[in-house]
Amino acid sequence: MDSQLSPLEELYHVSETDKVRFIGVTTEHARYDFGVVFTGQFFGKMLVVSLSSGRAALLDHEDVLDDDGLHRLLDVDPIDTSAVGDFLATLLPYVPSYEQAD
């Protein structure tokens, strides 16, 4: 066995069978394609991937209703953030947020 320490320490390795949805929508201004990974990880947040911009973010029901956040995180056009956010909110389950203990 090698006595040298590895520069990489694995913190976790979880395998799940997750539900993934792929959704394409269009507005008057742009087309948006998303992949949404529903998982038990990430404190109730879903992994939302914008296939159009290549950006991804962990979002919950409240996050997708934040117009500035959608623009900044997923590169949704500011004109479309409200409509796209309302649509994504119908896909994501509402999970009350709880503060983590210190």
Brief characterization of the structure:
This protein has 102 residues and is α+β, with helices and mostly antiparallel strands. It has 2 helices and 4 strands, in the order ββββαα.
Structure description:
It is a single chain. The chain has helices spanning 67-74, 81-91, and strands spanning 19-26, 31-38, 46-50, 56-59. The chain has one domain. Helices cover 19% and strands 25% of the residues. By secondary structure, the protein is of the alpha+beta class. Strands 1-2-3-4 form a four-stranded antiparallel beta sheet, with no helix packed on it. The chain is built from two helices and four strands, in the order ββββαα. Strand 1 (19-26) and strand 2 form a beta hairpin.
Give the helices and strands, then pairings.
Blueprint: E1 19-26, E2 31-38, E3 46-50, E4 56-59, H1 67-74, H2 81-91
The radius of gyration over CA amounts to 17 Å
Average predicted local confidence, pLDDT = 88
What characterizes the major β-sheet? 4 strands, antiparallel
Taking pLDDT < 50 over at least 5 consecutive residues as the criterion, the unreliable ranges are: none
The percentage of residues in β strands lies in 15-25%
User: How many strands appear in the DSSP assignment?
Assistant: 4
User: What strand order characterises the main sheet?
Assistant: 1-2-3-4
